[in-house]
Amino acid sequence: TGFKMHSWNEGNQREEIANVLNMRKVLGEEVELMLDPACVFDNLHDAIQVGRACSEAKFRWIEDPLRPIGLGAYQHKKLREAIDIPVLQTEHVAGPEAKADFLLAGGTDLLRADVHYDLGITGSLKTIRFGECLGVSTELHAPSPVHRHLIACQQSETMYEVANVSPAMDDPSPLIYSCGYSDNIAAISKTGTLPVPQGPGVGVAYDMDLIAANTLHSETITA
Measuring CA to CA, how many Å separate 87 from each of 11, 20, 80, 103, 217? Predict the structure, then answer.
């Protein structure tokens, strides 16, 4: 179980440091905490200051702190050298080859993958297996039935991201399933786990009537 905060602000490092330290104070010592500034900091100095606050508060990781979109391995290597908690990168570094280069260049401690960004299930699985060869886990970006399977196939423990929940929105996933599958925060068990879908394919059934009723455009591609 854990809690990850997105910054969604203008990159005020003092505000972020106060936020980080307050999260630990309010949520207690036993909760796994993570910070995802979503690339809001304009310079390495600010990212290091916030990263050191995360270290002081014993965060699990800091993720995507630097503008423009976290593509530079060198600046993230300097960040890694300046703090003593893991840096999580490569959400915006698309594909297994580029992710491998980023990791080997010292730009990240952990890998990030998403089937929508990284050549589907095959590309994401290649990233996972490459990381495992080096003892590096791959954190999957955002919730989905496929991501549950990819997390379950890994050797090391990773975190399943039930993303973008708030008092105004407790389920970020589209309501397109007819089998009861849900990424509602209430679906998380008391021990912090969720089931891996067990049906054919990726394990879920889709409400095709609902999808058809809301389809604005379709295109069929044949080889």
Answer: 18, 15, 6, 11, 40
Tokens (6 digits) for 212: 């058809």
What is the chain's mean pLDDT, rounded? 94
Spatial separation of the C-alpha atoms in residues 27 and 32, rounded to whole Å: 9
Mean pLDDT lowest among 75-89, 149-163, 164-178:
164-178
CA distances from 77 to 102, 107, 143, 173 (A): 10, 4, 28, 34
Q: Give the residue carrying structure tokens 């989905």.
A: 144
Q: How far apart are CA 207 and CA 162, in angstroms?
A: 21
Nearest residue to 113 via CA among 85, 84, 93, 134:
93
14-18: which pairs have CB atoms within 8 A and are 24 or more residues apart? 16/50, 16/53, 17/49, 17/50, 17/53
Could you give the CA distance from residue 51 to residue 41 in angstroms, rounded to a whole number? 11
Amino acid code (one letter) for 12: N
Per DSSP bridges, beta strands 87-88 and 61-63 are parallel
Q: Are 79 and 47 in contact (CB under 8 A)?
A: yes
DSSP structure string for 154-223: -SS-------S-BTTBS--S-S-BSS-----GGGS-TTS--PPP-SSTTS--B-HHHHHHT---------
Note if the pTM is more than 0.85: yes
